[in-house]
Design goal:
Length: 142
Amino acid sequence: MLGATPATASPALAVIGVVALAAAVGISSNQQPYEAWEYTEKHGWVGGAHDEVSNVDLPIRAVPGTSPTVVSVCRDALISNAQRFDLASLEAVSGGRQLRINGRIIAPLDVCAIYKINGVHEVKRSKVRCEVDRAGRVVATS
């Protein structure tokens, strides 16, 4: 598609590559759903919001306060729920201090999910609230 590798391509070639990529997956220039595109070693072309795409290869910085066990059980639940949307990868980290309300743990998480869509990948970063009951089961995410 491009004569140069994405890491060394000029900005003009990168734009041409994005247009060619969009054409290859059947998206016209006025229908492109993403603000930005970036080529990654792991996922190839990734589209999404500019801030999310520019940081796609960087790990999410955790904010201490939620136990690793709670983060792990919440991550597993999020992965299970997202599989039906063709999830390529998901990273979840503590997003701050967990609370205990009525016997449930309410945990803030920072999440980065990458989905495969029409032959390319889409990145989504978000704040997630995960609720874990006394038995250690995730009962809600939002």
